[in-house]
Amino acid sequence: MPEAEEYTIGWICALTKELIAAKAFLDVLHDPVDNAAINDDNNYTLGRIGKHNVVIADLPYGQYGLVNAAAALKDMTRTFSNLRAVLMVGIGGGVPCTKDIRLGDIVVGSVGRNSGGVIQYDYGRAIQGEEFTVTGHLNQPPMAFLTAMSALHARYEMEGHSIDSNIDEALQKYKRLGKKYKRPEASTDRLYKADFVHEGGEGVVCSNSCGDDKLVHRDERDENENNPSIHCGLIASGNQLMKDALLRDKLASKHGILCFEMEAAGLMNHFQCVVIRGICDYSDSHKNDEWQEYAAMAAAAYTKDLLLQVAPSSVQKEERIEALLGQVNEKVDDIHQMATESSRDIRSLSSSVHDNAISRWLNPADPSVDHNKAREACHSGTGQWLLNNPRYLTWKSQMNSFLWLNGNSGTGKTILSSTVIEDIRNSPLPQLRNCAVLYFYITFTDSQKQSLDAILRSLINQLYRSRQETRHPITLLYSKCGDGSSQATVEQLESTFRDMLSVGGDVFVLIDALDEYQNRSTQRDDLLTWIESFHNEPVNTNLLVTSRPEHDIKTSIETWADSDSIISLKTDNVGRDISDYVRDEVTKSTSFRRWHGHTSTQNDIVNTLTAKADGVFRWVALQLERLKDCINKEEVNTTLQTLPTTLQETYYRVLNELTSIRRKYVIRILQLLAYSDIPMKLEAAVDALAINLIAPPGSRFIMKEPCATDFMIRHGHRMIRQ
């Protein structure tokens, strides 16, 4: 039997099946070691492959991962002080999105993008709102093995390999292994689409529970292709078993990863290590135990071919691993600390990928666009009367309460909604610091924001993103809908939202502009019925809605809400806000700079507009646009004396003031705006004006002149653009 110092190749296995495969390919089996170093707890198998003496160590049963692999190598170098190279051989999960990797194939870690063949994929930090970053790039294999790989793969390319034949030969030698370690039927190699999660519990066979609809079709390999195929590239190593196909593809596409495993990073931080993995599954939820034994045999068979290609003299030129022992001792502690901390990070990223999948499935409308627009339009200091209103203060302080804010068109309900949202978000009250604020702005110009389905999807997504404890109900619904392959009904969304609210703590929900909801009566009734049932739910949720006091809304709400739950935007409520707004415009806006210092004129504008506004902000804003064009005091006085009394009269005047040609264009744009399901962009409006509808075919397009867009911006009346 060779002496301990004659062993130059270390071979580490994490699983018993990997050890069995390694032993099956030894040319000669040596006697067990009888002089192991003190504190060396490894179990060794000694033998020879070609001219290399090899020592195989297997990790303790059930103990795998970076830390245990590093500890095993540390002990190995105590007993076998002349080791020059270490092989990490076994099974791993393939990544089918980057190459045509199939079960039974072999992945060899080789030099990749800024790395030595292995990266540590959970060695990073997940920062909320930012991309998860892989920060561990590990050592490359020894040069002797890189040279041998090049020669071996060239031979494989030209002549093919005999891996399956060598496996059959080994199984003939160890007949008891034949049934379990032979190549499985090709039909059991099932690759599912990345967004399809395994159905049924662990141990349930995919062919019985997952069906064939979500399988990825792949052509059979022909006789001129190596099967199993050998792939060289990046291997990702970490303490987390990769079982998430979406996360797998996300990391793989960014870093060029071919395989995921759990031990190699523990060795390669300071040692030049060769990592060889037989592919037994696709690193997804459809784990396939049936291929593990064969994959281990394939990896071992390739490893033997590689060792036969390596000259012993080349191995002797490599640095002794014992010289790096002190660094390993320190690194084992570092790895353990890193594993504890970064395992949380990879769970966070996995959760983030899943969260994004659910959000994509919900496809919610984004209410923040409307909210930001309302905040930009909000005049500083306005709305304070509402925040001080006793009914509002009661609603804000008592959970399970309801408030209806109603007023005619243009009275600033949307602006007030945004003010309430910010008031709750920024409240110093201790009981409101941890509350969730959900909101939705119904918009008549956007059909995607005019249905109960859209409201529920948006509110659910907001709550899902803001409250970790509310995620189970929507995750369950997502699963019931085939992990996003089908859509949920409104009834399912209603039930799920209630379930989420029941565990979500204190929640405020604000829905603006009920009157802009789809105008078909049955759909409006559905919304009002849901609001009533929502209010009656025994959950810690406060609901505020706004609308014009239209008959159906008013009748419905007043049947179940008491008078203390209703605030009407009367003239006296908003008069001070209007006065402050107008005064700020005429004293500070550059559009009124000709009247800066003319206190009398400024007061006339403020007092007249405030008196005639009848609480309608939009009317005031439109009159200010007209007053901006006045060039002298006489014109200001005339304009103030002839102000239209209503919004409708204001719009009527604008249309009447247009020339006949421009009126034709304005009417066309208004028709398109009235019937379009989505907001019209300026470019689309210009294109619409460039078509002559009554011209004969072939000559209907009017060349758009350079001033066309400028016409829409400058000559389109400000009041029309409102």
Automatic annotation (TrEMBL):
Q: Where is the NACHT domain?
A: 401-549
InterPro entries reported for this sequence? NACHT_NTPase, NLR-like, NPHP3-like_N, Nucleoside_phosphorylase_sf, P-loop_NTPase
Q: Sorted alphabetically, which keywords does the UniProt record give?
A: Repeat
Q: Gene3D superfamilies, from UniProt?
A: Nucleoside phosphorylase domain, P-loop containing nucleotide triphosphate hydrolases
One Gene Ontology MF term: catalytic activity
| Alphabetical list of SUPFAM superfamilies matching this protein | P-loop containing nucleoside triphosphate hydrolases, Purine and uridine phosphorylases
List, in alphabetical order, the GO biological process terms annotated in this UniProt record. Answer: nucleoside metabolic process
Protein name, UniProt field = NACHT domain-containing protein
* Source species: Fusarium oxysporum f. sp. melonis 26406
